[in-house]
Amino acid sequence: MSGAAIDLAQVKEQIAPLGDSLVVAGGGPRARIHLHTNTPQQFLSAAAGIGVIEASKVDDMLLQQLAGRQSTIALVTDSTCDLPEALGHRLGLARVPLTLVVGDRQFRDGIDMTTAEFYRRLPDLERLPTSSQPAVAEFREVYERLLEHHNGVVSMHIAGALSGTVEAARSAAAAVDPQRVRVIDTHKVSVGVGLLIEAAGAAVERGAGLDEVEDLVLAARRDVALFGTVSSLDQAVKGGRVSPRAARLIEGAHLYPIIVFDDEGHARKGGVAAGFDAALRGLVKRAVRFVAGGPARVMVVHTDCLEAAEAVAESLCRRLGTPAIPVVQGGPVITTHVGLGSVTIGVRRGPRSG
Question: Which pTM was predicted?
Fold first, then answer.
């Protein structure tokens, strides 16, 4: 970490509550921080508020901690999955990061650069960042370590239509143990994947076997839907998905897209709304209609649009009678594609009683 003048006392005060075994060394414009934490993103975000993070190394202590768990099935995903960090830790979720390329530098998604830092940098980048799937060897290492202490692994990933991540995972599973490692193309992104992981975790916690967990996730895919909108088309223009002229016409008319996702995970236009607030209300209406009066689990994800996302969550709580709905930040790889200022609802409808 570097900065004009790093206050080590301030570092200790702000970082210490986030974990244990804290070591802070250095002084003046540079410092090194070591911490054992269950919430690495929270730690990195706090550190970024004090100085510039020049490099980070996150050892996956979770894989070590999983050795002491009683669960017979381990859950794996990739870094494009969005869900509350505390939930991921409770489920013992292992993540394999994609690689984010910003300029001439590479970062492990969710590890080497905080989400807040990526949000800060993105508007000033001349070229859009790109991303690449994890190497097969990375999945192999995770699977091999997990199978030392578990009977099986269920590995759930971003839609194969959008990324080669799931194919890399399948190649690794075939090399390690295809019977004990089940790789699933969720056909979803972001919190859509998160909702399926939550369902799988609940099944594991109640003692479901490997086949049952896999079957549950495959069946639940059709009961998960995503509805989103963006407050700006800047990213779509940079990425060539919308022409500059079309963007000017759309924004000049104060129209905002409503985005839906098909059964393979592709984003599709679901209509437009006159004003961003109207678009947000449109998302809520579609989510409520999808639930159709039955039980549901809901998550809201945003990319540097917290206030709007919290308003959407509050509206959904009232409409669905749900006490609380998690609001999470979209990670760097997802943000690269949707841009800043997006809000998306993920909803998983449950079986109706009777």
Answer: 0.82
